[in-house]
Amino acid sequence: MLKQEREVSKQAENEINWMRFEQYLRSNIQGLEDQQMVVKQFTEGYSNLTFLLKIGDWEAVLRRPPFGEIPAKAHDVHREFRLLEKINPVFSIAPKPYLYADDQSIMDKHFYVMEKKTGVVLDDTIPDDYDRAPNTRIRISESVVDTLVDLHNIDYKNIGLENMGKPDGYLERQVHNWIKRYRQFVVGEIEVYPKLEKWLLSNIPIPSSPTIVHNDFKINNMMFSYDEPGEIIGLFDWELCTIGDPLTDLGAAISYWKDENDPFTAINSVTTLGGFISRKQFIERYARKSGRDLSNFNFYLVLAYFKTAVILQQIYYRWKKGHVQDSRFETLDLAIQNLMNAAYESIDSQLV
Fold it and tell me: Taking CA 111 as the corner, what is the angle to CA 110 and CA 116, rounded to the nearest 5 degrees?
């Protein structure tokens, strides 16, 4: 009989067959020690669920979609697994994937297991000893920008990702699909929404040359080195990754680069502590390092705030319907409202 130590939510405890999962793990990964498995659920994030797995000195991360009803084609962790198989060999901060499975005898949805990286994740605080190194916050800022440029410089065709996305018409599909999702999960009136939708549909720019697009590029999706503050050793949450316009990544990164005066958006960012480069400096460094034309950047920022609002709206909708149990979700209506307002204000570049 296997013995396990688990620190997971009540829902995860009841709806995942952890004994069957461990049997599957031991059957498919060679060399695991004869010690009990320890499972600990990560609490950050509103999207896919992640769990730390530990057997002796071996550590890994289990990743799966959330419980309950989810939108069609959303949370496709098999696609994410296949992306990581291609990207990890040339961009090592992307975790190495170990195995993928879709087995209803283990859990209700498919899942995969990947490499666990060890370092510092910055959600809304910085460890005191980490922050003592000179210019830590500036070094972190510059590393974030440079990593985004490096990601966009990967030759995606050369690593076999030419069929992982549809660059032609990418921006048009983004706008129409996110509007469709908004309408599908409406939970309350948003005053600025009608004008916002009209502006997005009327101002789609000519796209930049296609690259890999992470689509959730933010500082707390990264891991930094313990020994070299500012050095990025991990980049996570690849579920939305595709091939498309790289400036959508820049828009998302700027929308997450919050300052202390930003309203509640339910999104943590250590940049609210101050001492990091400004949004404007972020954009200028990216333009200088990448050489890309940013003259239509306000469109990408409007789209980024709108997308985040719709993602939170989908979560809030599921919570209101009782499909998911998490007390953090009860205030998402305010965050959705504030993100929609930020999108509207970005039309006139008021936030940069």
Answer: 175
Least confident of 26-35, 199-208, 319-328, 337-346: 319-328
Per-residue three-class SS string for the chain: CCCEEEECCHHHHHHECHHHHHHHHHHHCCCCCCCCEEEEECCCCCCCEEEEEEECCEEEEEEECCCCCCCCCCCCHHHHHHHHHHHCCCCCCCCCEEEEECCCCCECCCEEEEECCCCECCCCCCCHHHHCCCCHHHHHHHHHHHHHHHHHCCCCCCCCCCCCCCCCCHHHHHHHHHHHHHHHCCCCCCCCHHHHHHHHHHCCCCCCCCEEECCCCCHHHEEECCCCCCCEEEECCCCCCEEECCHHHHHHHHHHCCCCCCCCCCCCCHHHHCCCCCHHHHHHHHHHHHCCCCCCHHHHHHHHHHHHHHHHHHHHHHHHCCCCCCHHHHHHHHHHHHHHHHHHHHCCCCCC
- What's the predicted TM-score (pTM) here? 0.88
How buried is residue 163: exposed, middle or buried, by Cβ count under 10 Å (0-12/13-18/19+)? Answer: exposed
The CA radius of gyration of the chain, in Å to the nearest whole number, is: 20
Residue 72 has pLDDT above 70, yes or no: no
pLDDT tens by residue, 26-46: 999 999 999 999 999 987 555
